[in-house]
Design a protein that fits this description.
By secondary structure, the protein is α+β, with helices and mostly antiparallel strands. About 10% of the residues lie in helices and about 25% in strands. The chain has one domain: Beta-grasp domain (Ubiquitin-like (UB roll)), CATH 3.10.20. Strands 4-3-7-5-6 form a 5-stranded mixed sheet, with no helix packed on it. It has a two-stranded antiparallel ribbon with strand order 1-2.
Length: about 110
């Protein structure tokens, strides 16, 4: 099946939210389109399951989530990953990722 758009290719519509979830209308990011026999990766992003169709880096995940230019702190499996290492930090099956947004105020 050919995706109608790049956006549809990045999101996995086979992953559904729990009944009653206010975010049920959102699709889960699935990474780049599956080609050949690429295995899927199961992650946990901010407590929610996330299925990726192919491996990617932390920076690629943040870009896909719309957070590439945002000030965020990211923890992978309990380790804080500095922003300078985001492009070089590969994600692996079973990773637990927590993203915290920096908020300003006074």
């Amino acid at each position: 099946m050919v995706a109608a758009s790049f956006h549809e290719a990045l999101y996995d519509s086979s992953v559904t939210s729990r009944p009653g979830d206010r975010r049920a209308h959102r699709r889960r990011w699935a990474g780049p389109p599956v080609t050949g026999d690429n295995p899927r990766m199961n992650l946990r992003l901010n407590g929610e399951p996330l299925v990726l169709s192919t491996p990617c880096t932390l920076a690629e995940l943040l870009l896909a989530q719309g957070l590439g230019e945002r000030r965020v702190a990211v923890e992978v499996n309990g380790e804080i990953i500095p922003r300078s290492r985001h492009p070089d930090h590969p994600l692996s099956d079973g990773d637990v990722i927590e993203i915290v947004h920096a908020l300003g105020g006074g």
